Amino acid sequence: MNVQSLSQWQFAITCVYHFFFVPLTLGLSVLVAIMETQYVRTGNPVYKAMTKFWGKLFLINFAMGVVTGIVMEFQFGMNWAEYSRYVGDIFGAPLAIEALLAFFLESTFLGVWIFGWDKLSKGVHLAAIWLVALGSNISALWILIANSFMQQPVGYSIENGRAVMQDFGALLSNANVWVQFPHVIASALTTASFFVLGISAYHLVRKHQEDFFQRSFRIATVTGAIAVLLVLLIGHSQAQHMVRTQPMKMAAAEALWETADPASFSLLTIGNEAERRDVFAIRIPNLLSLLAYNRLNGEVKGILNLQQEYEATYGPGNYVPPIAVSYWTFRIMVGAGMAMIAIAFYALFFVMQGKSLGKIKFLNLFPLAIALPYLANTAGWMLTELGRQPWIVFGLLKTENAYSKSLSAGQVLTTLVLFTLLYGVLMVADLYLLRKYAVAGPEKVSGLGKKRAARTTEEESYWE
Amino acid sequence: MDLNTLWFILIGVLYTGFFVLEGFDFGVGMLMPFLRKDDNGRRVILNTVGPHWDGNEVWLLTAGGATFAAFPGWYATLFSGFYLPLFLILIGLILRGIAFEFRSKDENPRWRAMWDWAICIGSFIPALLFGVAFANLVRGVPIDANFNYAGGFWNLLNPFALLGGLMTLFAFLMHGATFLSLKTTQNLSETARQWAFKLWIVTVVVGVAYTVFSYFELDVVGKLGVNPGIIPITAIITLLLAGYFLRTRRTGWAFIMNILTIAFATATIFFQLFPNVMISSLDPAFNLTIYNASSSAYTLRVMSIVALIFVPVVLAYQGWTYYIFRRRLNEKGESLHY
Asked: Does B78 touch chain A (CB under 8 A)?
């Protein structure tokens, strides 16, 4: 293993790990803010208890997202110095703006929210959690503006062998941002909704705190159903955008070797990646053209044709991303998404009927469904980043020219192993705490159900 | 003044903000296991920085982001060159960040003791290594013709740099103890003040050693003249005043003096660097400067507009949080989160 591949592994592991926590932070901040809004509007203490219970789980998750995010910001310079020099003029700006506009907002007001329960008026305290939600989601916007430049470079020129910003507005209005950002935000809300649904179902099955968890279940069902539907619709336009701007990624995700019109959609392909051919394939005629253009015909380019085309444009080289990974991550993402749509609308059906939710069939399976958004989020990012290979910035800079020249393989191996070990240990601690508080329910966290004066209850909750 | 200079100053300001703010929560984190052995006492200590530490840390993230945006060449060479120290700093920041949030979420004493040490060590590593890094920056490191760092890890641990590390370590410990004394009452406040004074003595000793050493290691006289100028002298005076105020129990004033000392010392370091951002010990032609390492004029202009609008906004709301959480914490009957 050389410096490049070790750095790629390290980036992949730390990035996937970071993105394990981020979607829940983005989505749950909004759900908790909605719950506290309900509390401030109605004065009903059950909403306050909900804010505190879900807020506690939010905080445990938030901490993991924050600390693993610092690694991401430093890693560009640490492991990808040549990349940083090449695109720094463009890529650094959204990162700096992310810190200045978003990180300060979310971190500062999270402190205010945690410690401000008995120091602030209800309205100001509510504003704090909304600012946290706003800050988190703004940070997603700026990092995706940066990432979109890697997918679809815009507003630049090449001067002295590096990319130089020509138009800041073009970075912001990059079409890729406006399919990717809504997709991530909607996925994040979906993640949080399934998280709340699963834990609420766990308690509803046990007939525990039914009022509390029925309300939680309802809020999560409604937001989850809307969000997952948006994921589908935006994901569809994102795929169409990909066909236009990164056809190779789509061809790899579909294991489409030859350009076809109309193009068929692969239901199942077992391929031989080395020889670039199918071993076994079931395909649905015309469906890929339909997905790409909303009509039955239309040319979708194939891997072999694109390889020839890119060789003509960019010179000799291998322009084919890892096909099996692209193909299967695409299917895992879409498959998990379809399953979530079914589950969310199944739940919505019962919620709309207004019946007691404890009687929903298969309710005991809902906790397992928490895994679905995580599968989809992880697979989605792997497709986005691996499907772009061999490019680190599409069409401009290859990954093989981007790593830090001053590093030795031994250094990167050391940090790779230590990061992985530390992250493993922290994951155990994180899951332990999440499970402990989720299973314990609101009595432990929010003091709900205890026969005490309100004031004492509140202090009790801080002492745990 | 051109935009390159403005951004050099702005990054200096961001690091100053980071050292002034996170400096005291590093100090509080390191002192916590030594000042109190009982769980409640430790919780009170942690809760003095509870609402602030995360926001304080963003100053570092913003400094890093601003370096990337304004001086990508500096960001690339520095972060890849100081690879292992930065890795250790990251490990420290990860440990303490998680520990703050996780520590009090389980009652098992071994669980709590484990995270207490994670906070202590996680604060110690960056407090030491930031000094090491900045001392190396002003001393110069081997940078080759491609602007890549060409030394190893051990090269960075030279005696001068280690002394710089001790400098930030003890300054932050003193700063943290002073903050703790300000934010607590009775016995804990008094104990913290006594620690702060003892740490002040060590800081002065290390500071004198560092200053003397720097005349041998750096071209101080050539750079600043025989009279080093108002900025380093102010740093020395405010450091001496901090000891006086600690001694006379005027902790608020001592804290202000600490802030000024850290700010003027950071300014001194940036003055010693200017107009370089990294000095090559191999050949001055390989120095990274605010011109050859910078972004384009257009990017600097965009970033200047963003910074001039939002930095004051951030200062305003972060200042407000110090106002609402200004009350001292008592060891009895306090409602604590951490």
From this structure: yes
